[in-house]
Structures are given as C-alpha cells and as structure tokens.
C-alpha cells in the first residue's frame, strides 16, 4: 500500500482510519470461501487456506496470509478474481503473473520461516462478471447496485521464482521499511507540534 498510496497508508496506519468494505473486497472473501468449500475447486487448492506467516526481515516484522499452502512441501498458490478488460482480453495473463511481486514475496517469507526455497508456484485467475441489478417499476429504472459473480471459467498460470527475485523483494522490504520509518517520524513531529 505504501508504494501505491502513501496518503491512504498514513490514514490507515498512522491515524487508524477505518477501512470499509466495497463490492470487490466482499466478493473476494466470498470467492475464497467458495474455493475452500466447493468440490469443483479441489484441483486448485492446497491443504491449508489463508496460511498466516510472520517473519522478521532485517528487524522488520512482516505478516502475510497466503491463499493456499501445503505445510509439508511449502508449496503455495495465489487466487485472483477479475473482470475481463474492456477490449475482452483476460484480466490476468502469463506476462502479468511473471511480473506479479506477491509471488516472490511469499516465496521469500517461506524461505525465511521454513528454510525452504520454493521456486515454482501458480496463480489462478477466476473470471468474474459484473451483473447490473436494475428493475423497471412504473416506467422508472431503479438501480439496485451491481453485484459480482464468477463465470465458472478459470485459468492457472505457473510461475518460476529465482533467488534474484527473492533478493529483489528483500531489498524492497528494507527500503520500504526505511521510508515508512522516516515518514512516520516526520509525521509524529508535525502532529506533536500541533
């Protein structure tokens, strides 16, 4: 979040601003529950869902929840739901997965916690559709809010992770921690004066 929205990060973590669910966050939870419960998804899930992993990296406590994990082998995977792009192309492609930092991030945490290098993983894109809920009553169209639904189509993309990928993520974590620490110190000094 720090890398994408620094003001949002400050509001959430410095000022303890409450975050509210939206259609996408609520749907994401529903998708995870469906994957964990429904028989048709057994081929994409591993034994443990939402595996909590916490490690110290250079004095920084890092916490993550891995979508699907095998405690015996340390194999892991990631789920992403997503609507097709306006041109009809898939939301996730192999090129997107190959650039996705979350996978080497998890691999780094697994290496730090379990002393195992996981060099292969996967990401499953579950195609999603937005359904407009509109009804016509007395000649007036009432908008009752959009909903999301899985289309039933999904694609699995494999990803190879090299040690240099984990090393790059390690540098990013340390750099980000330094930036946040410096920013928070400045933030506190400014707010303590007021």
Walk me through the structure.
The structure is a single chain. The protein has one domain. Helix content is 38%, strand content 32%. It contains five helices and seven strands, in the order H-H-E-E-E-H-H-E-E-E-E-H. It has helices at residues 6-14, 23-37, 94-99, 102-114, 163-193; strands spanning 48-57, 60-69, 76-83, 120-131, 134-137, 140-143, 147-160.
Which secondary structure elements does this structure contain, and how are they paired or packed?
Layout: H1 6-14, H2 23-37, E1 48-57, E2 60-69, E3 76-83, H3 94-99, H4 102-114, E4 120-131, E5 134-137, E6 140-143, E7 147-160, H5 163-193
Parallel strand pairs: 3-4
Antiparallel strand pairs: 1-2, 2-3, 4-7, 5-6
Helix pairs in contact: 4-5
